[in-house]
Amino acid sequence: MLENANRLKLETGLSQSSPTTLPGWHGLVLHSTRSGSNSVAVKVFDNVVIKFGEDTISSLGRDETAYRAEIQRLSDWCADNNLDLNMTKTKELVVDFRRRTSELHCVSINGECVERVSSFNFMDVHIATELQWSSNTLAVFKKAQQCLYFLRIHRKMDLKKELLIVFDHCSVESDYVERVSSFKFLGTHISVDLSWSTNTSALVKKAQQRLHFLSVLRWNRLQTDVLVSFYCATIESVLEHAIPVWYAGIVFNISYLRYIVLMTNLSVASEPETRHKINLDDTLDFGVRTSVQTSTSWKAPIIWDGMFDPNLYDQRHTEEKSSVALTVFAVGRYLDAYLKTFLTSAEQHFMVGLPVTYYVFTDSPEKVPNITLGSHRNIKVIPVEKHTRWQDISMMRMRTISEAIESEIRHRFRYVFCFDVDQEFKGRFGSEALGDSVALLHAHFYKLPQAQFTYDRNPKSKAFMETGDFYYHAAIFGGLWQNVKDLVDACYLGIIEDKLNNVEALWHDESHLNKYFWIHKPSKLLSPEYCWDQSIWDKQGIVVTRLVWAPKHYDTLRSG
Ligand code: UDP
Ligand code: GAL
Ligand code: MN
Description:
Elements: E1 5-9, E2 27-31, E3 48-52, E4 55-59, H1 64-80, E5 91-96, E6 108-109, E7 112-113, E8 115-117, E9 119-122, E10 125-128, H2 134-156, H3 161-172, E11 182-185, E12 188-191, H4 197-219, H5 224-239, H6 243-246, H7 254-268, H8 272-277, E13 302-303, H9 310-319, E14 324-330, H10 334-349, E15 356-362, E16 377-383, H11 390-395, H12 397-412, E17 415-419, E18 423-425, E19 437-440, E20 476-480, H13 481-500, H14 508-519, E21 524-526, E22 547-549, H15 554-557
Parallel strand pairs: 1-2, 5-8, 13-21, 14-15, 14-17, 15-16, 19-21
Antiparallel strand pairs: 1-5, 2-4, 3-4, 6-7, 9-10, 11-12, 17-20, 18-22, 19-20
C-alpha cells in the first residue's frame, strides 16, 4: 500500500550522532528521555534498530504494517526496560511521491499520536516533505542577508577591502559551516586540543547527579548487591561511556574520576566499618586548583577552596561523632581587644554542626564575654597567670595546652585546635580542616622562596634549622589530641632548653613549631585561605578568606 512512500521520522534537535537523512531512507528516530537512556544496549529487531547515544533510529522495509509493528516492538521493549520515549521530541515527516496519495493514519506510540510535520530542521538543514530544499535555501539566504547588512555598514565606514573579505568569510560563509572548539559526537565531547577535559567534566557531572540517588538508596538500607547493580547500570555506564576513545588522553582529569569512584564507594559500602576504611582525604580533587600546590612531597594534602566536598566531610565527621576542643588565650589587654569577635565569629563558621568546646585561658575570667552558643557547643574558662613579657605569654601557651590536654581534653575530645585570639572567622572553617596533624601555611611566606623563610638561624637555639619544607604559622595548629600533645610538649621542651642556654628563638613558639613540623611532617596543611592577612596586596591563589588577621596594635596591647 505504501509502495512509494518514504517515511522519515525525526526528532527535533536530534544530535549530530545520527546518520545522514538521505531521501529514500526509510527510518524512524525516537528520542528516549534521560533516565537510563545511556544504559540501553544495542538491541536488534527484525528490522534494524541502531542505538546512537540517546537517539534511536529504526530503518525498515517498505511495508507499512512492518513499520508500525516495528514501532510497537520498540516501544514495548523500552517499556520493559524502564525507558520512556520522549513524545514531545518525536516528529514524523512523510515524504510521499505517489501520484494518488491516500490519507495516512498517524503513527501512535503508547496510544499517543506522533506529531506530523511538513518541514524539519535537522542539523541546521531544513528537510521538507516534498524534498525540494526551497525552505532550506530560503533559511540560509535569510541568515546570509542579515550578515550582508553588517558588511554594507562596514563598507560605508570605509573599512579596508581585506578586512571586508575576512568578515565575509567569517560571517556570511560561516552560515554554512560553523567552527566550534568542542563538539559532541556520539555522546563524547571532542575538543580542538584533544584534551578530553570537556568530556570528563560532562561525564562526571552526569555521574554526580546520579550518585545522589545512590545515597538515597543506601540510606534506605538497600542490600549491597542491589546498590552495586544500581551503580553499574546508572553510574559506571556513564563514566565508562566510550572509554576506549578517551582513556589514553585523560592524564589531567583522572582525579575527577577517582573522586567519583571514591564517592561511590562511600555510598555503596553499606557496612559502616567498610565505609570508614576509605580515607576522606582521598576524595580531594588535587587537580582543580591549577595555580597552587595542592599536596606536599610526602603526599599530605594542602587544603584550598574547591578541592573538597564540604557535605561529605561534615557527614562523615557527624557519623563518626568527631568532637573538637579549641584552645585560645586572651591574656591582659588582648581579652578586651579580640575575644568577643573571635568567639562570636567562631560560632558562625568554626566546625558548625560538630560538638565544640572553647577553652579560654585568661588572667581575667570575670571579663570573658557572654556569648550565645549553638547546641553541643560550650565554653570553659581556665584562669592562667599573666607573664610579664608578651613573648612568654605566647611561648608558655605550649605548656598550658599540654596540661589541659592531659587533665581534661583527652577524655572528652578527639581533636584539639589551637588558635591565636587576634583573628576573625569570615567563612566556613569546617571539618575538612580536621586531620591527624594539621599545620597552617603562613600568609606572608607561601609564595616566597625558602631562603626568605624566617626560621631560627641561631645554632645555639633548639629551634635552629637551615632548611625546611614550608613556613608554618603558629596562629593555628591542631590534630588528634595525642599528636597535639606531642607537638606542644616538644616545643615546650625546646623553649625551656633555650631559656637554660640563655637564647630565645627568632619567632618564639613559632620557630619551635616550624622545627617540630620539619621533623614530624604534618598530615594535612591548611592554605592561607584559612588565615589571611588582608593587608597583603597580592592575593595570588586566594579564592576565599575563611579567617582573617585582626588589626594588630602591639604598642597599646602588648606588655613587657
Ligand atoms: N597573647 C595574649 N596576650 C598578650 C600576648 C599574646 O593573650 O599580651 C596570646 C593571644 O592569644 C595572641 C597569642 O598569644 O593571639 C600570640 O600573640 P600575638 O598574637 O601578639 O602574636 P603574633 O600573631 O603577632 O605573632
Ligand atoms: C609576621 C607575623 C608574626 C610571625 C612572623 C614570622 O607576619 O605577624 O606573628 O609569624 O610573620 O616571620
Ligand atoms: Mn596573633
